[in-house]
Amino acid sequence: MDAIDPFVMQLLIVPAVVIGAGAVAAVLAKRVFVGPLVALLLNMAYEAWYMLSYYPDLGVSFTSWNIFFPLAALPLSWIAVNVRRQVDKVNELDPM
After folding, report:
1. Most exposed among 29, 30, 50, 81, judged by the fewest C-beta atoms under 10 Å?
2. pTM of the prediction?
3. pLDDT recorded at residue 3
4. Quick check: 81 and 26 in contact, CB under 8 A?
């Protein structure tokens, strides 16, 4: 028996982790394009692992989530990086 329901995994956990990790990576790098790139690579790695683990005879095939997750990570990364830049400017002007 699996510990986590595949429905919950694919529709809640994977998107939150993949998109969230992309936004965090973009903030740390202070570059917007890093977020969608990290989201794409993480989801592709997850899908490759999933296909090779559960369907080894079929090989690896990718789904349309590899388009949606980077597109969802893009505006979140843009917002997060802009907030980080504004916070850095404020801290530059008024270091406490």
Report:
1. 30
2. 0.88
3. 82
4. yes
- Alpha helix (H) residue ranges in the chain: 6-8, 14-29, 34-54, 65-93
Mean pLDDT for back-to-back runs of 10 residues, the chain (96 residues): 78 95 96 96 95 90 94 97 93 78
Which residues have C-beta within 8 Å of that of residue 94, sequence separation ≥ 6?
Answer: none
The SS3 assignment for 63 reads coil
* Rounded Cα distance, 61 and 63, in Å: 7
Q: Quick check: 31 and 84 in contact, CB under 8 A?
A: no
Token duo for residue 9: 């995994």
Cα–Cα distance between 31 and 54 in angstroms, integer? 36
Angstrom distance (rounded) from CA 66 to CA 42? 9
C-alpha 11/C-alpha 21 separation (Å) is: 16
Gap between the Cα atoms of 6 and 35, Å rounded = 25
